[in-house]
Amino acid sequence: MALTQVSGMTPRPVEDTANLTTTLWEKAASSASREILFSSADGTTWQGTTWGQLADRVRSAAAGLIAMGIEKGDRVALMSGTRIEWTVADLAILAAGAVTVPIYETSSVGQCEWILSDSGAKVAFAGSADHAKTLDGARGQAPDLAEVFVLDDGGLDALAERGGEKGRAAVEQRVAATGLADLASLIYTSGTTGNPKGCILSHGNLLVTARQSGVNLEKLFQAGDSTLLFLPLAHVFARIIQFGCMENDVQVAYARSVETLVADLQSFKPTFLLSVPRVFEKVFNTAQRGAEGLKRPIFDFAVATSREWAGSNKPGLLTNVKRTLADRLVYSRLRAALGGRVRYCVSGGAPLSAHLAHFFHAAGITILEGYGLTETSAATTCNTPDAMRIGTVGRPGPGVDMRVALDGELLVRSAGVFAGYYQNEEATRDAIDADGWFHTGDLGEIDDDGYVKITGRKKEIIVTAGGKNVAPAVLEERLKSHRLVSQAMVVGDNRPFIGALVTLEPEELAAFAKERGLSGASGPGAVAQLAKEQAVLDELDKAVAHANDAVSKAESIRKIAVLDRDFDAEHDEITPTLKLKRKVVVDHFSEQIEGLYRK
Predict the structure, then answer these.
(1) How do residues 269-285 score in pLDDT, each as one tens digit?
(2) Number of domains forming the structure of the chain
């Protein structure tokens, strides 16, 4: 029988006087020479930064902020890609008693205008000259913004020069006066409609959550373990894992870019990674695409073996022999592509397809799927090495209570739950009830062992003309599991049946065309041309059939429209965390949607 409420284990205690920089000063005093952060300019030589060096850089930059008039509680914006300077700037802001306002490096001038004006940011860090140009373009709507320090141009050093000894002494006072209740960050959620809302997150929200990661992810945080960050630190997922690593003295490296990720993985050789499902899909599809000709049956054998091995609690002799063979031929190459030492991956941000979890698990890389939102400081539930159930997002973490409301919505209550939305009392009242339960907006179930499964998004429920309620998430996830499908969005609100918009993966489509001897596999218009080929349409029919296997006939997809291009951020159709902006997509592809329902 399914549960309606479940609680995590007793959390690790965190003293009220602690803050997000406490561990930095403690480690700088006790383990000053231990290297904790790593960066690379060429992808082959990794430069380590010790706890002592990190503390000096943070203290100097924080002194500069104080010297230029930043007071406790003032907001400081931070717009940059993932890099070591992001962490130094963030910690310096916090050490000065100020509040970090992260901005995605892909944000437009208009998006920056809203965040800067709503937060009242007084100073900003920009990663590059282009980022600084974007922030400068937003100044008209941000009267409080003074200087912008460019990290590429030595902005941290320029700031440090302003501090001096007097400023450094002031840092000690600010740090001592900062506790769990103080505001640490305003993180603006990338809403699918309207302006994003600023989530008020305290030092307590983030620090308590980070400390508990040492319980859930204990086997990832052993001596000698390390990770390579490449997800945006502007998002709470990457940031909370980074804080968790620092709290548990786990080494962190910063990838130079997504384009250099493979080379960086192979040179740094991390032991665990955090990612979104899209990256795992790319890795799997690339491996599959590389298995051409005679190699393809071998890859298919490895995929089938992963399902067989994962489907048995105690694999028999034959299954183990198959896995050993598949490991020699396929799985070992996957591990090598990730650097050769990765044992675990933490996945979040979107549902993970079961076939990916099985494949990586059989390859000796366990993907631990979790769940959380910005409003809950990211980590709410997570599968762990000792308690994992594929198809779920795991059990609640230490100190987390979860409940399923009567309408199926998941509610969360924990020390990680935010205080509310900045300058938006109405939205706060709608989100947090009188008993402290945060209403996630996600639909879910809790099985009798306490594992949580996400079944859909409350606001995304489609109601057909016949009155059938349809959650699009499961259909979209299954559609995207097909090698040719890049994105999918289910439609059908107030319509006679369910349809879907589908976009194609150009590289996979080209490889498929080559396999089948189809013409027009390259050049402009290749996707549109190949999408009309019967062989491609037959494959998409298989993808639809696979999706429909998970739902009733009334919820099944009857027709699809194949689009000429992918959904993208340039057209404002996806958020920085790759979530669909459904209303925008509907507006942009209204003609294709209407075409699904024309007789």
Answers:
(1) 999 999 988 889 888 88
(2) 3
